[in-house]
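Weekly structure sync, notes
Attendees: PL, DS, HV (note-taker this week)

Item 1: Dihydroorotate dehydrogenase (Quinone)-like
DS walked through the input record. Source organism listed as Hirondellea gigas. Sequence as pasted into the shared doc:
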Amino acid sequence: CPPLLVKLAPDLTPEELKQICSIAIDRKIDGLIISNTTIDRPSSLQSVHRSESGGLSGKALEHKATEAIRLAATYTRGSNICIIGVGGVSDGAGVYAKLRAGASLVQLYTAFVYAGPGIIRETEAQLLDLMTKDGFSSVSEVIGKDL
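Item 1 (cont.): predicted structure, written out as tokens:
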């Protein structure tokens, strides 16, 4: 069977997320993609579209998604579930935060759309600088460091 990944919203309560993680472990789900878009509108959002309904993506989602990753990584600790960190990643610091929160893989999408392909090399260089500064020599050393 191909790997099965489940994409979760960052709007789940900690208890809901814990229940889903427990089911994912029991059902041997291969991974969790955290997070989908949010229905929240943070007070920092300055868009003229702030009052529109629907899922919000991009930078405004960053901290909420990272916290959901941290919780899911805590709830799935010791299992074989891979966590893919998604939401608001626009630079090496964003990748680093999601790795430290427990993501094994990180997706950069909205920033890629707006900044173009050059953002990949730039993000990689920033990530390597942060890792070196903190004494890490590989990404695997960083994963879950803040748990």
